[in-house]
Amino acid sequence: MNSAALLARDSFVEMGARERARRLLDAAGFRELLGPFEGVESPWLARQGVVPQSDDGVVVARGTLDGVPAVVLAIEGAFQGGSTGEVSGAKIAGALELALKDAEAGVPIRPVLLFETGGVRLQEANLGLAAMADIHAALIALRQHVPVVGVIAGMVGCFGGMSITAGLVSRLIMTRQGRLGLNGPEVIEQNAGIAELDSRDRPLIWSLTGGEQRVATGFADILIEDDAEAIGQAVRAAFAAGMPAAHASQRVAFWRERLAQLPERAEGTALRRLWSENGSDREAGDE
Amino acid sequence: MTRPDGTERSWSTRREDKQRRLERAAAFADGRVLKPDRIVEALETIIVSGDRVALEGDNQKQADFLSRSLAKVDPAKVHDLHMLVSSISRPEQIDIFETGIARRIDFAYAGPQSLRVAQLLEDGKLEVGAIHTYVELYARMFVDLTPRVALVAAEKADRAGNLYTGANTEDTPTIVEAAAFGGGIVVVQVNEIVDVLPRVDIPASWVDFVVKADRPAAIEPLFTRDPRLITEQHILMAMLAIRGVYERHGVVSLNHGIGFNTAAIELLLPTYAQSLGLKGKIARHWTLNPHPTLIPAIESGWVESVHCFGGEVGMEGYIEARSDVFFTGPDGSLRSNRVLCQLAGQYAVDMFIGATLQIDGDANSSTVTTGRLAGFGGAPNMGHDPGGRRHASKAWLDLKTDTSPLARGHKLVVQMAETFQSGGVPTFVEELDAIEVGQAAGMPIAPVMIYGEDVSHVVTEEGVAYLYLARDEEERRAALAAVAGVSPVGLRHDPARTDDLRRRGLVAYPEDLGVRPTEAKRSLLAARTIEDLVVWSGGLYQPPARFRSY
């Protein structure tokens, strides 16, 4: 990329959830389910001194992708770190279940998850966790019928319970700005100490969890520039490619073998050296 | 000449005393090169109790090997020093007051150590001569605060003692000049001793000793603002400033503060300002540290010249490749100079624009907001209208409101601040905290950063107040209140009065300037991340690790 391209670029990272969903879907036919004017808010946040948001930080958008009916679940990273609460979790789970009904009835549906989340919302802990279970059950049922595509654009990234969700999708698209990890760097530093991980050492954090590393080591499938047009094309191409031979989360033997050969110091470059040769061949399947 | 009592007075006592000290210290040196492992003993012979000692430390570069070594000298041998430190940044610069090595200090800024300074002051272990601005402290080194010993930092030296200070030349030549020509002793820590220097920034005849530091001098990347943290509110204010100040007055030469508001302006030049057709008409000549956020404007051909107070970590390679824009030596690397850049910033540029933390109803401002006494740095000098200026320029004349034949222009002194700081703390207040802090510290005057009488414009997210157009104090206050939002000062504003002020051009709201607040989006920024800045620089800018992500 050069400076002219930088100026011309339509940054996806800079967009809010609603704008991302609108930009991703085909130009005509955008509509929102349980949109902000329906006012379904978290009943828990106000009691804890947090101002709720009238969409609870999740946009459920219907429309089409290349003319095929689609549902985009876009998480708003700017609201409570994109965390999953009772309402926002139910919106995601419910939308996936609706998509499942369509898929079971043979109605075409293209489900897309736009991750931007630190995981379960601490203020609604158990309800958020329960929602995770619903989301994962629905996603696994849905992916038997149609591919499910995930995008981690950044800058919040995708952590906690939602990183497991990202691990369940059929194809995962990331930008270099995006990060994917079970525990966020601040959490690791707090629990294991700064000697284990300095959360302010950004090159280190990205060398472990950044999009480039995650794609190089086979935890995500497609690395894309931060450009709305390019991301839109990548999502469409991911659906056009059809179902993967196997979902990453089904390749248990493959991951076991990898874990067995973990290097002494499992930092970014060592993992990349070790895993990049066999990491890219995710489509092969080993069940 | 013989004195009345018959004795001869010597007129070269300082030179003779210096010679005696140099001879004693020679035991710890090989020619001009001090042995690093004997540095503490060397300092004990070079420095004598009660000396005035200039210890180089500004907001960027610190002679930290020498300050750590000074903290190790025996307080029984060396005590009661009078320190001159422009910016107190390191703990050991303060430790020496606890051990009694030093007793008195003159400084300009005490950012990270301001709480300890206040504590030691209260405990009676530290006396403050005065809290200066940078140029005042350096100026006084040539009047009544000439250092007996100067402890400074350079990047490289040769064996003869010539110095290469490079991109971070900053204050070094000034301190060295005051000491070397005032009969003092100059000791320089260097990162490397080499046979051939890239260029000579300070000649060997000004230098008494060099010593190789145990690790490179500490340098802070203080002027790097991550575009990721620029908000839409910053962008709106930047748009208001570009239209309401830069375009309105045709501001060609200027200095920017280090806040995110002015970083937003730098990043809007190649996009928003370009779309307004302002390229070549504004912002061509700068007195400014090498802000990475200026890279897109430079690359787009907006910037003709930049003279720098100091360097900036990571910008070295970029600057070398853009020598038409920056002041560079024959070796290619940047030559910064704080005092000359301050001078240029006062007399040669038409505008200072910067942020602040508190503004009162009369537009006096201060960054002193809590119980800490941070000092001034350079902002009060940049942020004032120098009465000694005589050359005219369009922008300077534009602010002339008096029709008398003796009237002169005015420097644009622009304060840019959101009406509230984070956490809902108002920026516009009835009384500056500085008044109480100044009284508590026993300061003869309140630590005001920029006086209201110098301020020509105030820009907030509400609009622009053209204070220089006010006919009297009362009208000034009304214009300021009109852009102060719902802060205590803003709540005093009278809507009918504001309408009149808008008609007469003392107050402009976004619609008066053709600015649409809904267009204030981050997509307007020429770079939205540090990585974008690297791309703009063609890979020449190498951000420090803490600013990089991938």
Automatic annotation (TrEMBL), chain A:
Database matches in InterPro entries: AcCoA_carboxyl_beta (IPR034733), ClpP/crotonase-like_dom_sf (IPR029045), COA_CT_N (IPR011762), Malonate_beta (IPR017556)
Q: Where are the transmembrane segments?
A: 148-169
Task: Specify the enzyme's EC class, one word.
Answer: lyase
Task: Name the Enzyme Commission number(s) assigned to this protein.
Answer: 4.1.1.88
Write the signal peptide boundaries.
none
What would you give as a GO molecular function for this chain, any one? lyase activity
Taxonomy, superkingdom: Bacteria
The CoA carboxyltransferase N-terminal domain covers which part of the protein? 1-253
Q: Which UniProt keywords apply?
A: Lyase, Membrane, Transferase, Transmembrane, Transmembrane helix
Protein name in UniProt = Biotin-independent malonate decarboxylase subunit beta
Ranked from the top, the taxonomy reads: Bacteria, Pseudomonadati, Pseudomonadota, Alphaproteobacteria, Hyphomicrobiales
From TrEMBL, chain B:
| One matching Pfam family | Mal_decarbox_Al
Q: What span is annotated as the signal peptide, if there is one?
A: none
Q: Which InterPro entries match?
A: MadA (IPR005777), NagB/RpiA_transferase-like (IPR037171)
Q: Which domain of life is it from?
A: Bacteria
**Mind telling me which PANTHER family this protein's record contains?**
ACETATE COA-TRANSFERASE YDIF, MALONATE DECARBOXYLASE ALPHA SUBUNIT
Q: Write down the NCBIfam families for this protein, in alphabetical order.
A: mdcA (TIGR01110)
> What is the official name of this protein in its record?
Malonate decarboxylase subunit alpha
Q: Which organism is it from?
A: Ancylobacter oerskovii
What's the encoding gene here? Answer: mdcA
